[in-house]
Design goal:
The complex is a heterodimer. By secondary structure, chain A is of the alpha+beta class. Chain A has 2 domains: about 230 residues, P-loop containing nucleotide triphosphate hydrolases (Rossmann fold, 3-Layer(aba) Sandwich), CATH 3.40.50.300; about 80 residues, Nucleic acid-binding proteins (OB fold (Dihydrolipoamide Acetyltransferase, E2P), Beta Barrel), CATH 2.40.50.140. Chain A is built from 9 helices and 17 strands. Chain A has a 6-stranded mixed β-sheet with strand order 6-7-8-3-9-10, sandwiched between helices. In chain A, α2 crosses α3 and α2 runs parallel beside α4. The longest helix of chain A has 15 residues. The radius of gyration of chain A is 24 Å and the shape is elongated. By secondary structure, chain B is mainly α. Chain B has a single domain, classed as MetI-like (MetI-like fold, Orthogonal Bundle). Helix content of chain B is about 75%, strand content about 0%. Classes of the chains: A alpha+beta, B mainly alpha. Chains A and B meet through β6 and α2 of A and α9 and α10 of B.
């Protein structure tokens, strides 16, 4: 099912939260809605779900305007950040809830709920109480509950944020495996770039209630259209384009610390820095230094690289891709 | 600090001992001491054998159970508004708390003013319709029930409001996204989650009603309310053994029924009630 948003705006007590959002989410595509806290991503998700009414604009499912419909009538699956599992019901009855409200008989809804639980590898927990489950198990039950009524749209609000970091990595991979075969339009709200990269086919970045950029994970990481997008996804260096002379606001060259390597000689270097600081990051070292023009740069090097503060470091851009050159071509806005 | 806690704990123990345990022991002792000072259960036999007393006890228990259960459910909309902090919640909470300042007998007086022989309702009816069907309504079982409900509902609402405030709003949103409209949300989510609080409010209301005799003294004509009967035995007939036995009986019945209600309905369920 295609989700189309036309001019969505939302104000809470005259405070604008969303400002003219236009988006189209393709059928079967997993999209991550990413942004910092307060960027309006959960509000947008709730507007799509029908839990919150927009102040202006329309929500369309397959071209049909569903803006006036309540959440109960939109046939969506929603996984809440807190999971919002019903504590008075067993795991099976939680998963069967959406079938019960739609009048499916007890035997059939339990059979279908069991199938949904099998899909998330939780069938053995059907009779358990919710408070007897771990965070990861609750997350899976919440997903099974959202999927049991066979929705055509799946919405997930920070599905991994309630989990501890180690569990989060494992569940993220599992979630990707579970979402892949579903082939339903999925929108995931997250503030974690790793969630967005692993789970999503496309990423939409929101900031201040506006869409900053939309594209594939590689688009947003390697070809950011906005400095805020570039810095959201990790450390970034900015240099004025050589010979440009117009300053950073015009067309800076941006590249990430991992996009550099040591040049064999000063003659082959794209730039040289004087090392000011060396940070140990476990799998690599991050070196911070100043160019002769006084621009501060950060570069990542293999962790066994022997370097001292005050030493000159000749660097070259690793032009595998597309990062620096394309960023310049895209015209990054500051 | 430790000495202070010890001191107030001892003071509390003293208050409990002299203010509750000692009177209870005394009443229990009086109930089993015969005229010659011997231990006997003769008075129990007399009270159990008195059809009037037994009928009054049963009627009182049934009346209190019904009004308590009704009050708890009727209090739900009020509790919801207070618990969710909706418009007027603070005013409604304050109005509900005023209830605690009223003695039961004041409620009886209010009922007489409203539904007595010359009450507002009767005067309005006479003026508007020329009839007098509502004259003396306060002295019927209906009037007594309205009187009990008027102090049971606000108190139940305050208990329920605490439970309502604890319901995660995300659960109601989850029910909505799963196709649950208002009635389904209420039946499948809200009421099961409030069940322990509903039972607690009903038990509290029941105990409150069982102990209340002020309104009964003033307006109970069609139902004999047991605490009013105890009061009459104690102060009217000076029959201390009878009053003591009836007091013990009422206490035991109230406590046993409260425990049974909590046991039967007080636990949150986690299996479907299809």
């Amino acid at each position: 099912m295609t989700i189309t948003l036309e001019g969505i705006e939302k104000q809470f007590k005259d405070v604008p939260v969303l400002r003219g959002i236009d988006l189209s989410l393709a059928p079967g595509c997993v999209t991550a809605l990413i942004g910092a806290s307060g960027s309006g991503k959960t509000t947008l998700l709730n507007i799509i779900a029908g839990l919150v009414a927009p102040s202006a604009g329309r929500v369309l499912f397959n071209g049909q305007d569903v803006t006036p419909l309540d959440a109960a009538d939109r046939r969506i699956g929603y996984v809440f950040q807190s999971f919002a599992l019903f504590p008075h019901l067993s795991v099976l009855d939680n998963v069967a809830f959406g079938l019960r409200t739609r009048g499916v008989g007890r035997r059939e809804r339990h059979a279908r709920a069991l199938v949904a639980l099998e899909r998330v590898r939780m069938a053995g927990y059907a009779g358990r109480r919710i408070d007897a489950l771990s965070g990861g198990q609750r997350q899976r039950v919440a997903l099974a509950r959202a999927l049991a009524p066979e929705p055509e749209i799946l919405l997930l609000d920070e599905p991994l944020s309630a989990l501890d970091p180690v569990l989060r990595d494992n569940i993220r991979d599992e979630l990707r495996e579970m979402l892949e075969p579903l082939d339903i339009t999925t929108l995931i709200v997250t503030h974690d770039k790793a969630d967005a990269f692993v789970l999503a086919d496309r990423i939409v970045m929101l900031s201040g209630g506006r869409v900053l950029q939309e594209g594939t994970p590689r688009d947003l990481y390697d070809r950011p259209a906005h400095i805020e997008v570039a810095s959201f996804f990790g450390a970034v260096n900015m240099l004025p384009e050589a010979g440009d002379g117009t300053g950073l606001d015009q067309a800076p060259v941006i590249f990430r610390p991992e996009d550099t390597g040591r040049a064999p000689s000063a003659a082959q270097a794209d730039f040289t820095i004087t090392i000011a600081r060396r940070l140990y990051l476990g799998d690599r070292v991050r070196v911070r230094g100043l160019t002769s023009e006084g621009h501060e740069l950060s570069v990542d090097l293999p962790k066994h690289t022997a370097l001292r503060e005050g030493e000159m470091l000749h660097l070259t851009l690793l032009k595998d891709g597309e990062s620096a050159g394309t960023a310049r071509a895209a015209g990054v806005r500051g | 600090m430790r000495w202070f806690i010890l001191a107030i704990s001892l003071a509390l123990l003293g208050i409990l001992g002299f203010g509750l345990v000692w009177p209870l022991v005394t009443v229990a002792r009086v109930s089993i001491i015969g005229a010659a000072g011997e231990i006997t259960f003769e008075t129990y036999g007399k009270v159990f054998g008195n059809a009037y007393f037994m009928r009054a006890l049963v009627e009182t228990v049934v009346f209190c159970l019904l009004t308590s259960a009704l009050a708890s459910f009727w209090a739900l909309p009020l509790a919801w508004r207070i618990g969710r902090g909706q418009t007027g919640a603070r005013t409604l909470r304050a109005l509900s708390q005023i209830n605690f300042a009223f003695a039961g007998i004041i409620y009886g007086m209010l009922m007489i003013v409203l539904m007595g022989n010359a009450g507002l309702l009767a005067l309005l009816e006479a003026w508007l319709l020329g009839s007098e069907a509502t004259r003396g309504l306060a002295f019927t079982a209906f009037g007594l029930a309205v009187c009990y409900l008027s102090f049971q509902i606000p108190r139940s609402a305050l208990i329920l409001a605490e439970a309502v405030a604890k319901i995660d709003p995300g659960l109601l949103d989850a029910a909505r996204t799963l196709g649950g409209r208002g009635p389904a949300q209420a039946w499948l989510v809200v009421l099961p989650l409030l069940r322990p609080a509903l039972v607690e409010a009903t038990v509290f209301s029941f105990l409150l009603a069982m102990a209340s005799f002020g309104p009964a003294l003033l307006i109970a004509r069609s139902i004999t309310i047991f605490p009013a009967l105890i009061y009459r035995e104690f102060t009217g007939f000076l029959n201390f053994p009878n009053a003591a036995v009836m007091a013990v009986l009422m206490l035991v019945v109230a406590l046993v029924l409260s425990a049974l209600m909590r046991l039967a309905f007080g636990r949150p369920s986690w299996t479907e009630t299809a």
